[in-house]
Amino acid sequence: MTHSLLRLPAVINRTGLSRSRIYSLLGMGRFPAPVKLGGRVVAWPDNEISEWISQRIAERDASEMSDG
Fold it and tell me: Is the pTM of this model over 0.85?
C-alpha cells in the first residue's frame, strides 16, 4: 500500500482548520498525530487526514438524523 504525506499547509487546506486549531486538537487527542521526518519537520499521512474528515462528516450526518 502506498501512503503519501501531507505537510502542514496541505493539511490546513484539506481540513479548513488553522495551524493553532490543528495543534489544539492534536493536544486533546482529537486529530491524527504527525510523523516526524527529521529535525522539526513533520507531515501527516494522507489516509489518516481523509479518515478524520470522513469521521466529521459521519458525526454531522448522525447528528442531523437524531435531530430530525
Answer: yes
Q: Exposure pattern of 33-52 as b/e (b: 16+ CB <10 Å)?
A: ebeeeeeeeebbbbebbeeb
CA atoms of 11 and 45, how far apart (whole Å): 10
- Nine-digit cell at 35? 510523523
Which tens digit of pLDDT belongs to each residue from 7-49?
Answer: 999 999 999 999 999 999 999 999 999 999 999 999 999 999 9
Amino acid at 42: V
Nearby residues of 46 by Cβ (< 8 Å), 6 or more positions away: 3, 4, 5, 6
Burial of 59 (0-12, 13-18, 19+ CB in 10 A): exposed
How far CA 18 is from CA of 9, 14, 50, in Å, comes to: 9, 11, 17
